[in-house]
Amino acid sequence: MSEHNEIDRVSGRSTTGHEWDGIKELNTPLPRWWVLTFYATIIWAIGYWVVYPAWPLVSGYTTGLFQYSTRASVVTDLADLEKLRGEKMAVLGSASLADIEKDPALLALARARGKTVFADNCAPCHGSGGAGAKGFPNLNDDDWLWGGSLDQIMQTIQFGARSGHAKTHEGQMLAFGRDGVLKKDEIVTVANYVRSLSGLPTAPKFDASAGKKIFTENCTSCHGDNGKGNQELGAPNLTDKIWLYGSDEETLVETITNGRAGVMPAWVGRLDPVTVKALAVYVHSLGGGK
Amino acid sequence: MNKPVSPDELITDEDGPLYAPRKKVYPQSVSGRFRSIKWRLMAVCLGIYYLLPFVRWNRGLGAPDQAVLIDFPDRRFYFFFIELWPQEVYYFTGLLVLAALTLFLMNALGGRIWCGYLCPQTVWTDLFYAVERLVEGDRRAQMKADSGPMTARRAGRRVLKHAIWLMIAWWTGGAWVLYFDDAPTLVRDLATFQAPAVAYAWIAILTASTYLLAGYMREQVCVYMCPWPRIQAALTDEWALNVTYKYDRGEPRCSVKKAFDIRSLGEKAGDCIDCNQCVAVCPTGIDIRDGAQLGCIQCGLCIDACDAVMTKVSRKTGLIGYDNDINVQRRITGKEEIFKPVRARTVVYAGLITLVCALMLYALMSRTLLDVNVLHDRNPIAVRLSDGAIRNGYTLRFLNKRGFDRVIAIDVDGPADAKLHVVGADSVTPDRPMIVLARDTTTEMRVLVTAPFDEKAEKSVPVTFRVTDIGLGEVASATDHFVLP
Fold first, then answer.
1. Over 60: is that where the pLDDT of A1 sits?
2. What residues in B contact A34, CB-CB < 8 Å?
3. Closest of B135, B120, B411, B395 to residue A287, by C-alpha
4. Beta carbons of B41 and B300 less than 8 angstroms apart
5. Where are the beta strands (DSSP E) in B213-271?
6. How many Cβ pairs closer than 8 A exist between chain A and B?
């Protein structure tokens, strides 16, 4: 910066004294309005300190003139959203389940609401898309333990299965082995008989007539004479291709020996009635609804 | 021209100024060929801008009948026969590419044609200058008034000028908002104070920006704010025609009388009589005789001014004209002038413009007004039913870009004996579900495809959803996969 007032010979103008590889920078002053605009932006920034929350203090911060807070505005937005939602949900509440399914707009609304609620409450057991898992039914298929109509689905969501609620679905698979009702070889025989009901291959030395006899004496009261199940009792259909716990001999032996009694919690009281309704429509629309 | 300064001319300037004070420009009125071109272009540009929102275009019942409309709430853009959806924003990208290439081509042919004749900054500034001259008088009168004391008469004129300026600015802002809503309705609402606050706010913003930019900032926008002069300088080449002072003919400058004396001695005298008319009419306040420069918007007004003077002194016109340095040098060395409008640069630009136009046109012509997108269920990816059949779930999204409702039928091609079910749509034809698509909107539907289980079938087979408009026969399709569990 030694030759600060050096004059460039070509342009006749002063240089800034900066030089790079022999190239010197001309002093080209900004127009006055530009400089003033620059100062104005600085003043504007100071305005922000006053109007908006800005400076941290020992405990807390400067809140600004209008007490603006992003958190408060989120709370307001959420309240507005709830209000808007409430209006829409009221329509859902007054329509019947069947009417909701018939009206595309209501169906879309119920499905949207149901999907969110399902993800929050049901997905831990039934999976995010209702695909289920071992012991937790797949809600997409057409096989229903407690019935797949809209009303039946809603009933199950409200009161659950073996949930302890007064109106819950009762009925369970007894522990035929553990309780000493059937002996080990009888259990293997009847397990093979059950496999044969849905056309699955059986063990080589399987005695079909013995199996049928054991089945008739012990199982038909719940699963029906031909093993088609009973939705009143939550007894699954044993003749179809869908198995809640598995269809291999070992799993069946385990099921018959120790019984099964999976629990579905009751949601009445935890979810409001309109939400339960939306959930029922959503589950029904997954594809398996009757 | 920039010439080296001799050492004794060097000014020593202590620290240099921090900022440069503004020199006010008083462009003198001028008439001639380029001035009349500019008047006409101004009329066309402003006419289009102010009147276009009122042009009607029938699109059928329920659709807006405004020829050019940007409908933000419904996310639609209407331009005469074209209606664009937000996902078709690439048409605007194409338009911008086209605009850039056209700018480049203009630049390669005739310099800053955009700056000088068409840029909104130039058009409105030109209009504001005209108003200023009309009210406060021409260059000399204004300069005299500005250096003298403020009189009541002068103050009155000044108030009148600003009132007219604000009127034009307000009209400009008003026209702007008309592009975003039904213009006649909005005009009525604005007049009766029923229009939304945002409309008034935008009118205020654009009134302020027009008034400031055209009334005050003027040439400062071109010199300090606008990037185009910088880009233009980098894009230009030696063949591009620019508004040029032909110094081969003009130098050395001398008065008519002196030139006569010099020429009678058989020596060379320039045609430039140094009358400074080219400087007086310049809207950016530069001297074109200093050569091509950033501040020159190449509006051609100095050509008109010079031609008028040359005619008066009975010399050939065109001392300033569209020319380039190559020809100046060629004339100095006694060679023929050459112009090369057709050269690699212009041919490539023109070719690219044609290509982009063709692509856009093709995209526009082959644009479908019925479309379907498919999304396969993620969880579960496939479902086994109690009878062993396999079912896959999909979400179909239909786009009906027509202005009326229509009935479509959905067919599915994929696994053998596949059955299609649309959730929530009880179709009278279960084998070929039909649904109604509302006008100008998208519809989302969940569909289920069920196929009997076949052990030998592939784990994944393509499945195609074909959508047919029953009335018009328009077809669209989307392909995904049908998978086994």
1. no
2. 19, 224
3. B395
4. no
5. 242-245
6. 114
Return the higher-pLDDT residue of A79 and B453.
Answer: A79
Residue A104: the pLDDT is 82
Beta-carbon contacts of B8 under 8 Å, excluding residues fewer than 6 positions away, are none
Residue that is written with structure tokens 């579900």 in the block? B433
- 3-state SS record for chain A: CCCCCCECCCCCCEEEEEEECCEEEECCCEEHHHHHHHHHHHHHHHHHHHHCCCCECCCCECCCCCCCCHHHHHHHHHHHHHHHHHHHHHHHHHCCHHHHHHCHHHHHHHHHHHHHHHHHHCHHHHCCCCCCECCECCCCCCCCCCCCCHHHHHHHHHHCECCCCCCCECCCECCCCCCCCCCHHHHHHHHHHHHHHCCCCCCCCCCHHHHHHHHHHHCHHHHCCCCCCECCCCECCCCCCCCCCCCCHHHHHHHHHHCECCCECCCECCECHHHHHHHHHHHHHCCCCC
- Count, residues in chain B: 485
Contact between chains at A14 and B13 (C-beta distance less than 8 A): yes
Beta bridge partners of B393: B448
CA B250/CA B245 separation, integer angstroms: 8
Q: How far is B221 from chain A (nearest CA, A)?
A: 11
- Please give the model's pTM, rounded to 2 decimal places: 0.77
Chain A: residue whose CA lies nearest to B426: A102
Q: State the amino acid at position B479 in one-letter form.
A: T
| Higher pLDDT, residue B455 or B384 | B384
Q: Which amino acid is at A216?
A: T
User: Cβ–Cβ of B385/A30 closer than 8 Å?
Assistant: no
Return the number of other C-beta atoms located less than 10 Å from residue B420's C-beta.
20
**The complex's ipTM?**
0.76
Which positions in chain B touch A5 (Cβ < 8 Å)?
Answer: 12-16
| Residue B209 CB-half CA count within 13 A | 12
Q: What share of chain B is helix, strand, coil (3-state, %, to 5)?
A: 45, 20, 35
Q: Does residue B336 sit at the A interface (CB-CB below 8 Å)?
A: no
Could you say which of B10, B19, B448 has the minimum Cβ distance to residue A30?
Answer: B19
B333 exposure class (CB count in 10 Å sphere: 0-12, 13-18, 19+): exposed
Q: Using the beta-carbon criterion (under 8 Å), do A9 and B10 form an inter-chain contact?
A: yes
CA B226 to chain centre: 14
Confidence class of residue A3 from pLDDT cuts 50, 70 and 90? very low
How would you class B354 by CB atoms within 10 Å of its CB: exposed for 0-12, middle for 13-18, buried for 19 or more?
exposed
* Cβ neighbours of B9 in A, within 8 Å: 12
Distance CA B449, CA B443 (A): 19
- Write out chain B residues lying below 8 Å of A129, CB-based: 377-380
Which residues in A lie closer than 8 A to residue B12 (C-beta atoms)? 5, 7
Work out the burial of residue A240: count CB atoms within 10 Å of its CB; fewer than 13 is exposed, 13-18 middle, 19 or more buried. Answer: buried
Per residue in B114-144, pLDDT (tens digit) is: 999 999 999 999 999 999 999 999 999 999 9
Cβ A276 vs Cβ A154: under 8 Å = yes
pLDDT digits 0-9 by tens, B52-99? 999 999 988 778 899 999 999 989 999 998 889 998 888 999 999 999
Rounded CA gap, B279 and A275, in Å? 78
Predicted confidence at residue B15, as pLDDT, reads: 57
Contact call for A104 and B424, based on CB within 8 A: yes
User: Smallest Cβ distance to A128: which of B12, B379, B446?
Assistant: B379
Asked whether the beta carbons of B60 and B403 are under 8 A apart, the reply is: yes
DSSP one-letter code for B427: -
Residues forming a β-bridge with B384: B390
Cβ atoms < 10 Å from Cβ of B301: 28
Beta carbons within 8 Å of B107's beta carbon, 6+ residues apart: B113, B114, B232, B235, B236, B240
